[in-house]
Amino acid sequence: MHCNDDGPATLGLFSDSDLQQPARVEVLGPQSRVLRGFALPWVEALLPQLDAVLAAAPFRQMQTPGGFTMSVGLSSCGQLGWTTDRSGYRYSPIDPQSQRPWPALPKVFQELAEAAAEAAGFPGFAPDSCLINCYRPGAKMSLHQDKNERDYSAPIVSLSLGLPAIFLFGGRQRSDKSQRVALLHGDVVVWGGVDRLRYHGVLALKDGHHPLLGQQRINLTLRRAG
Ligand code: MD3
Ligand code: FE
């Protein structure tokens, strides 16, 4: 006998809430939270939208002002996209590779970001930019602050997909000790307020294979940039 033999009749005795994992919220700082698995119910709707964005604006490895090539592949969607080249870091309404506007921010990205921000205590978040980072094994992001946004009062929402990574969360100064946090597929992190300008980075990605994403980690970072 198969366990689904009396299928829907048995399932019908339970409500949807019996199948829902409890919310797992971890405190990273006074105004930053890890929402474990928050995006899992959204992933199926989100991945085709992500594919469409990446078809129009493929990942590319950008140059830093110092002349290094970033190990992380970057793309963007929304009214503004973050870019870097020899002349500096900035937000631009135009994709420098295609010379066309960035793809629009998919509605499901906006809805997820608004819901996550609200769950972390920042209601009314309206992102205008989504940076998409692609990590292959060995790719990393050195400790830095996000300072190119016009207004630091809005939070930043980040969604991790695919292979796990170790996120480094430091303090207000580069030399402050940083904590290590593993970020897994479906985890969402929200930073705002007093934590908005803290140093952060990502350790070199370990090799592995994710059932949906393969040999990579993709991070979506939703911001209010303009
Ligand atoms: C913490 N990305 O794109 S999550 C970045 O996983 C970036 O790809 C990392 O740092 C990644 O700039 C980390 C995003 C993140 C963004 C802004 C923050 C973490 C933050 C601001 C303050 C503290
Ligand atoms: Fe950052």
Automatic annotation (TrEMBL):
Enzyme Commission code(s) on record: 1.14.11.-
Gene3D superfamilies: Alpha-ketoglutarate-dependent dioxygenase AlkB-like
Name this protein carries in UniProt: Alpha-ketoglutarate-dependent dioxygenase AlkB
One of the Pfam families matching this protein, by short name: 2OG-FeII_Oxy_2
GO biological process assignments: oxidative RNA demethylation
Residue span, Fe2OG dioxygenase domain: 126-226
Coiled coil: none
One GO CC term, this protein: cytoplasm
Alphabetized InterPro entries for the sequence: Alkb (IPR004574), AlkB-like (IPR027450), AlkB-like_sf (IPR037151), Oxoglu/Fe-dep_dioxygenase_dom (IPR005123)
Cofactor: binding details: Binds 1 Fe(2+) ion per subunit.
Residues holding Fe cation: 144, 146, 200
A single MF term (Gene Ontology): oxidative RNA demethylase activity
Keywords for this protein: Dioxygenase, Iron, Metal-binding, Oxidoreductase
The UniProt record lists the keyword Protein transport: no
Class of this enzyme: oxidoreductase
SUPFAM superfamilies: Clavaminate synthase-like
Cofactors required: Fe(2+)
Superkingdom as given in the UniProt entry: Bacteria
